[in-house]
Description:
8 helices, Immunoglobulin-like, 18 strands, alpha+beta, four-stranded antiparallel β-sheet
Amino acid sequence: MSRSLAMLLLLGAGLGCANQESRANVSTLSGQVKNTLGKPEMGASITVLDQTTETDFSGLYALRVPAGELTVQCALAWLESAEKSAQVEPGGSAVVDFQLTPRAIALLPADKALAEQYNQTYDWKKDKLSIQQVGKSTRGNLERAVYLHNPALFADASGESPIHPSTPPSLSASPTGFSFPLPEQAPHSGQEALVMATVVDKLEETPLTQEEIGAAFPWEPGVMKYLSKWNLDQAADLYYATQAVQTQKWGGASRLAAQTLEEGYVHDGKEIWVKLVFEDFLTVGAGIGDDDGDGKKEVFARVTGALYTEEILAKLADYATTTFDGLGLRSLMQQILDDLYSRTNPIFLRTIGVPYEIPGLGTIEYPLAVIAHQGAGGIVNVLLGSP
């Protein structure tokens, strides 16, 4: 569709009133909204005086306006608002185009202080509000912030029947009982998901560097969504490794997984390590503690090397290090919510840079995003970014 034809269609209803007033008194304002990549932006709000319209799928808009000097305002979530002036002659027309830039990512000191104050008493198993500092806006960090310890995903395990394995996982002398064989349908069927000899209780007992620990990624979103969508054949072994861990019930019949792979780490570009977290209803042996204080015991181990390729390692490195600006965040955040939260019916209450008032606590002046989970009792995630 040509731009001129689109303008005529948008204005059709208004121009149909021309039999009631002289065409000479009909002035028009039109234009197109694009982003800094030169792509049209649909849904941008255009306001002139007391009139507001939105751009169509081609980024086009049109309004009937009074003649004179007019102020045209343009706004769209995730992007900086803009304002321009236009002189419209009686019976004439004017074109005002916009190119919107992405909002900058920032962490205000006051927002950081408010988050730190709140998190001193935050209980992710009970509270309906979480405030997370994302750090650098990588996909791994974003998914970690909206996935790990998110009240919207919490499943209360207090009612599960206790499980007492005949040989519980233990670190009393050396690692024993950590058995998670891959299922028959896996490419490496029967192999153990983890190298038992590498299992340790504390993160500092692993060979991981501080930089590698800082680039940790949430295991399930990273493997079950990100890698599997990229190349399911290559990711198949890690996909089944996740299932092998979660379906090990130790002879019990709990409805929930007794343990999960929570986080992953890439070491020296050659190895994958994981954080394995146990639920309270599973009895574990000596030497396994809760060092991070989240209420669940955990261990760390290396994933069996045959289960991943160099391409997988490179893809995970990209997942943990590639950053996104305000323009990229818009589509990425929506994709993350679609992937992880279909059952919680999430919506964006605020997007980057739009203040959010928290009753009884204060105002987050410059959030990265505020997400409400309508299908999970109104649980809200506030995310804070970092440039």
